[in-house]
Amino acid sequence: MAGYGASPDFPTEDPFQAGFGGSFDAFIAKFDTNATGADSLVFCSNLGGSGDDKAFGIAIDSTASNVYVVGQTSSNNFPALNPAQPTSGGSFDAFIAKISSTGAKVYATYYGGSGDDRGTGIAVNATGVYVTGFTSSTNLPVVVPLQLNNGGAFDAFVAKLNPAGNSFLYSTYLGGAANENFVAAVTATNPITVDASNAYVTGYTASNNFPTAVPLQADQRCRPGHLRSQNRRRYAGR
């Protein structure tokens, strides 16, 4: 399991980061469901720097050899390891980390630009690690992007790390002129899944120019005022 806490005395077990970084730290823990009581906690570790570090999504590979965690960090001293992006882009960044089934940190990286970037979902297959979230950055580090630039306000993002975790195979904005996938308080929704060769992402948009492709629904049916005007016409026609 993964989450976050503000407790300096959070009960760690065989941790790769024993100390509390400050503010909020993410945590990753493994439990043995065949054991009971204190013996069931195999490992538990903090993950964070001096800022606000929170884990929102977790995935496991097909062999149960590693877990993958995504979240947010405002720490300029987030404990990166073998990173694809070694330093903070600014404000909030997403973070992505890989932890072995025995509790060792394999890699941990920032992902973000100079704006507000939060990671909310993660999934993994044999070809890499897929993450999604939202960004207000106009300089998100994109790689062979489907959408080169921020459409406006908060866009969703979708990115894929190579299996080693040290480079992005692709990363892209996904959004129109209004907000995509943004909420005032982030929750652990993990809105992404994968098959052998594709990622599937869900979210929401307030944009009437969201970049659709072969859509089931081509336009935004519930624009502000649209339902009210439809109702007025319906009542006027009775």
List the helices and strands and how they pair.
Layout: E1 2-5, E2 25-31, E3 41-47, E4 53-60, E5 66-73, E6 93-100, E7 105-111, E8 117-125, E9 128-135, E10 155-161, E11 168-174, E12 192-194, E13 199-201, H1 226-236
Antiparallel strand pairs: 1-2, 2-3, 4-5, 5-6, 6-7, 8-9, 9-10, 10-11, 12-13
Question: By helix and strand content, what is the structural category?
Answer: mainly beta
Shape: globular
Rg to the nearest angstrom? Answer: 20 Å
Query: Could you describe the largest sheet, including whether it forms a barrel?
Result: 4 strands, antiparallel
**Estimated share of beta-strand residues:** 35-45%
Strand order of the largest sheet: 4-5-6-7
Number of helices: 1
Number of strands: 13
Structural notes for this entry:
The protein has 238 residues and is mostly beta strands. Helices cover 5% and strands 36% of the residues. The protein has 1 helix and 13 strands, in the order βββββββββββββα. The strands form 4 sheets. The chain has a 4-stranded antiparallel beta sheet with strand order 4-5-6-7, with no helix packed on it. A 4-stranded antiparallel beta sheet has the order 8-9-10-11, with no helix packed on it. A hairpin with a 4-residue loop joins strand 6 (93-100) and strand 7. It starts with a strand and ends with a helix. Mean pLDDT is 91; it is low at 224-238.
Brief summary of the model shown:
The chain is mainly beta and 238 residues long. Helix content is 5%, strand content 36%.
Which characteristics define this entry?
238 residues, mainly beta, four-stranded antiparallel beta sheet, 1 helix, globular, disordered C terminus
